[in-house]
């Protein structure tokens, strides 16, 4: 069966409501974001005349879910919108936007209702700091969730037995710009040396996709009297937590240490290849990831793209990458160049396909892929 015909299903504990969605990864293409759509199936008898609502939320978490200091929880709602699904306020045809919704409505019958949300332009993408092996509970993350619940009104306290929650991800994608070629070029001067050390560091392009090797070109012209040795090249992930703590984490996610040397009066021109992948950094505490869906593989966090006129603080967590060239010349000297690490449209589909073929169960035990 093709993954195109697989949907995600989650049912409430009392079986009064179930949620169906064709995907859980939604791509931010910079100029537009994939809308969130799905179908809700209800049991009118179980609802007992109550209304049914669907909520889309974006939440920044800092610390454990149950952490509370002086009555202030370490979380902030960055976005929250709620819509009434049942009794329907509009005809189903007006709320049905996709073919998969149409198919689900036909299959599920008269007690099924569509929902549709669009992301605003100022929201961040999903990101989570990887906990250490001994850490328990949520630590630091920006998470998105779709929740269906019933009540007399949307302000009423939600009954967990008759509500259902499905975690989704908003993933950053940016097309390559062949005109932008990251380059850093500098000269180092030393005491007791008449001539300088010249270093140039460049990448073939600005945007690399997860799983793609990063090729680094280094040119070192040593006209100084110093001898250059212990050359290393690394990809570093820089994570800024811009809400609550303003913490900054710099972690090497790929590194090559060499015995290359550049004696006085010589030069070196060489290409290094680095592989910044989560597979090489499993269980490293504090590493930023592209969010996480339970039991599902993820990637290193994509580079954050903050759109114009959007406050950085609203993003919660900002992630960037750089290549750093280091060497010893009596002391350490270094040069760095920034680049972007991103998801690709094809990668999102391939991750979904692999997960399905493995028979992965997503989220809680009640939540799994099912045939549309």
TrEMBL record:
<dbReference type="InterPro" id="IPR011022">
    <property type="entry name" value="Arrestin_C-like"/>
</dbReference>
<dbReference type="Pfam" id="PF02752">
    <property type="entry name" value="Arrestin_C"/>
</dbReference>
<dbReference type="Pfam" id="PF00339">
    <property type="entry name" value="Arrestin_N"/>
</dbReference>
<dbReference type="GO" id="GO:0002031">
    <property type="term" value="P:G protein-coupled receptor internalization"/>
</dbReference>
<dbReference type="InterPro" id="IPR014753">
    <property type="entry name" value="Arrestin_N"/>
</dbReference>
<dbReference type="InterPro" id="IPR000698">
    <property type="entry name" value="Arrestin"/>
</dbReference>
<dbReference type="InterPro" id="IPR011021">
    <property type="entry name" value="Arrestin-like_N"/>
</dbReference>
<feature type="domain" description="Arrestin C-terminal-like">
    <location>
        <begin position="193"/>
        <end position="346"/>
    </location>
</feature>
<dbReference type="GO" id="GO:0007399">
    <property type="term" value="P:nervous system development"/>
</dbReference>
<dbReference type="InterPro" id="IPR014756">
    <property type="entry name" value="Ig_E-set"/>
</dbReference>
<comment type="similarity">
    <text>Belongs to the arrestin family.</text>
</comment>
<protein>
    <recommendedName>
        <fullName>S-arrestin</fullName>
    </recommendedName>
</protein>
<dbReference type="GO" id="GO:0007165">
    <property type="term" value="P:signal transduction"/>
</dbReference>
<dbReference type="GO" id="GO:0001664">
    <property type="term" value="F:G protein-coupled receptor binding"/>
</dbReference>
<dbReference type="GO" id="GO:0001917">
    <property type="term" value="C:photoreceptor inner segment"/>
</dbReference>
<dbReference type="InterPro" id="IPR014752">
    <property type="entry name" value="Arrestin-like_C"/>
</dbReference>
<dbReference type="GO" id="GO:0001750">
    <property type="term" value="C:photoreceptor outer segment"/>
</dbReference>
């Amino acid at each position: 069966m093709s993954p195109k015909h697989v949907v995600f299903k989650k049912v409430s504990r009392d079986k009064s409501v179930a949620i169906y969605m064709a995907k859980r990864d939604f791509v931010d293409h910079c100029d537009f974001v994939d809308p969130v759509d799905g179908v809700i199936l209800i049991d009118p008898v179980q609802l007992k005349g109550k209304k049914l609502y669907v909520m889309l939320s974006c939440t920044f978490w800092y610390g454990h879910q149950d952490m509370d200091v002086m009555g202030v929880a370490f979380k902030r709602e960055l976005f929250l919108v709620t819509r009434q699904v049942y009794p329907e306020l509009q005809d189903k045809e007006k709320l049905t936007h996709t073919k998969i919704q149409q198919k689900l409505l036909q299959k599920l019958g008269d007690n099924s209702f569509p929902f549709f949300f669009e992301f605003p332009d100022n929201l961040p993408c999903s990101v989570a700091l990887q906990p250490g092996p001994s850490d328990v509970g949520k630590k630091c993350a920006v998470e998105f969730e779709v929740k269906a619940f019933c009540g007399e009104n949307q302000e009423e306290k939600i009954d967990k037995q008759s509500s259902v929650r499905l975690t989704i991800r908003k993933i950053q994608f940016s097309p390559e710009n062949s005109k932008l070629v990251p380059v850093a070029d500098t000269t180092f001067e030393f005491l007791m040396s008449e001539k300088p050390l010249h270093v140039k560091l460049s990448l073939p392009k600005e945007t690399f996709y997860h799983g793609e090797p990063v090729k680094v070109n280094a040119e070192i012209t040593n006209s100084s009297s110093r001898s250059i040795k212990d050359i290393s090249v690394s990809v570093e992930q820089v994570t800024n937590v811009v809400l609550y703590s303003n913490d900054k984490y710099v972690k090497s996610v790929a590194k090559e240490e060499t015995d290359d040397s550049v004696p006085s009066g010589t030069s070196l021109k060489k290409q290094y290849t680095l592989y910044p992948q989560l597979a090489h950094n499993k269980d490293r505490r504090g590493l930023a990831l592209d969010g996480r869906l339970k039991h599902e593989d993820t990637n290193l966090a994509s580079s954050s793209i903050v759109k114009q006129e959007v406050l950085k603080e609203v993003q919660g967590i900002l992630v960037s990458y750089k290549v750093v060239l280091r060497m010893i010349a009596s002391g350490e000297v270094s040069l760095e160049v920034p680049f972007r690490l991103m998801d690709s449209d094809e990668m999102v589909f391939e991750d979904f396909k692999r997960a399905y073929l493995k028979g992965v169960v997503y989220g809680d035990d009640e939540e799994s892929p099912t045939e549309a």
